[in-house]
Amino acid sequence: MATQEYDYGMIGLGTMGQNLVYNMCDHGYSVAGFDKDTAKVNSLESNAGGRKVLGAHTLNDFIGALKSPRVIMLLVPAGAIVDAVINELKPFLSNDDLVMDCGNSHFTDTDVRTQQLAKEHIHFMGVGISGGEYGARYGPSIMPGGAKEAYERIAPMLKSVSAKVNDEPCVTWLGPGSAGHYVKMVHNGIEYGLMQLIAEAYHLMKECIGIGNDDLHKVFAKWNEGRLKSYLIEITADIFSQEDDLTKNRLIDMILDASKQNGTGQWTSQSAMGLYLPVPNIDTAVSTRDLSGLKEERVAAQKKLQWNKATFKGQPNELIDWLENAVYFSMITTYAQGMSLLQRASKEYGYDLKLNEVASIWRGGCIIRSVLLDDILSAYSNEPALVNLVVNEGLANKLQSCQDGFRLAIKTGIETGVPLPVMMSSLAYYDGYRSGWLPANLIQAQRDYFGAHTYERTDRAGIFHTQWSQNKQ
Ligand code: 6PG
């Protein structure tokens, strides 16, 4: 039996875990893996191809194989399973061992686990990893949070396995406690927003100009050569050309229009609401997935709620051009909302995040990588305390330049009855953010009228309540 020979341990040998193990081995590290599923343990060894990998069949063998102090990575589903694994591991652990949770755990769980394990002198880190199966194998974006000293122990390994952009690794220490998992959660919230607004562009093109899949492929491939260049636009172009093995139709047309979710987008919205910080593009993207899930209700309603909608009479290329503007505009506001949430959370939870570093490590390996992140990186490098990306001079000019096309795309959606929820939220956010005056005085008056909730005045300091003369209660 191997004793104290392996540099790292990995618990959870699904595709992500296995790929990350091989990635680590390819960078010179030896790894012992453990999973309750024996088939996965066997497959780790049988696919290892000469790499220094151990597939352990018991926790005892796994622990015994690791160099001390141990570093153990977990890639298991978020929630109760993480606690169950930690509880099983605990009796085997010694002072200074480090456990890294590399799944999509909720940040508050990460804080609790960090504190509980610290009492037993075990270090715990919440580490966000993005990039799917391919990223895990060939270079993900890695978002580690926790004690800085613990990070220093694993930094060389994380840097070597991560994606690189201009030779810079897409990993950095983000902050204490749950900083890494918070940043990963917001990454996913942005991911939801971007995915939905791309879907809206597809919807409007399909409904208004009856565009086919080959042309959709071409439009997205062309967009990916310009300012929209990003992983999500790139894979969208690919998706439209994929043939279905079963029917030989295009696969996209055979997929049920009801989207699922694992919760990270919803967590982003919940956290933002708790911090009184608006992220409407993300909220709307979550709600729109929920609406898509009401498939049967939608089909029934379609029959009942017919409407004489207008048909689009413009040129197809014109609409495609408006939509390119709309996608770009909404992309900027989606990142802007995510970044402003990170800024607020950083203050609230003491993460001390450097938003330029966050933008930097998102430029490669992760699902939301895009050329726009270069602009976001330079915006925060030049002005670390920038209140919102939409007021950065460069990005403000870009928003300004695509506003007309964007509004025309939305107008087309309104006239033709095609829902563009994230695009509309994006525009309302922008128009609201740049309004020095909003009708919230009326909300305050109503609150005071029916509930004596008081209000502040424009002409003097203090808190006021009025005995409204015609109070109807
Ligand atoms: C990533 C992805 C990854 C996962 C999403 C999917 O960064 O690699 O975000 O974490 O694919 O969580 O989320 P939903 O299932 O909620 O769409």
Task: Describe this protein's structure.
With 473 residues, the chain is of the alpha/beta class. The protein folds into three domains: 8-177, 3-Layer(aba) Sandwich (Rossmann fold); 184-433, N-(1-d-carboxylethyl)-l-norvaline Dehydrogenase, domain 2 (Orthogonal Bundle), CATH 1.10.1040.10; 439-473, 6-Phosphogluconate Dehydrogenase, domain 3 (Single alpha-helices involved in coiled-coils or other helix-helix interfaces, Up-down Bundle). The protein has helices at residues 15-26, 38-46, 59-65, 80-89, 107-119, 132-138, 148-161, 179-209, 213-223, 231-241, 264-274, 280-292, 295-304, 316-349, 355-361, 372-382, 393-416, 421-433, 440-451; strands spanning 8-11, 31-34, 53-56, 71-74, 98-101, 123-130, 141-145, 164-165, 168-169. The strands form two sheets. Strands 3-2-1-4-5-6-7 form a seven-stranded mixed sheet, with helices on both faces. α4 links the parallel β4 and β5. α8 (179-209) runs antiparallel to α14 (316-349) and α11 packs across α12. The mean pLDDT is 97. Bound molecules: 6-phosphogluconic acid. The site of 6-phosphogluconic acid (6PG) has 12 residues, from α8 and α11.
